[in-house]
Amino acid sequence: MAVKVSSVRIDSNILANKAAIDQNLSAAIYNMANAILQTSRMVAPMKTGRLRYSGQVTGYGLEREISYNTPYAAYQERGMRKDGSHVVRRYTTAGTGAHYLEKTAEAIVQKGIQPYLPP
Fold it and tell me: What are phi and psi of 52, to 5 degrees?
């Protein structure tokens, strides 16, 4: 048995729906990235506050990046220098520590994207 398709009608609403889906997904990723930033700020090491307030979300559409922009941000995130030396043994603020951004991102991503979709 064979099926022959002689014409295909494309509903113009499909393209409109795809645009709406892309827009909602982009908004959800933006909301999720900002949630990661705000939550990680609360657990980022704080001595002067400079590290916490250097955080930002960049990018657009479906690609967002959360970063902290101080010379020592990566050192504080890892809890040691890149070569493994100078391990941070004590953080000055209770409840803060290494992997503040990584742990926060993992926790928020595990919740899924649903809570961040626009209403």
Answer: -55, -40
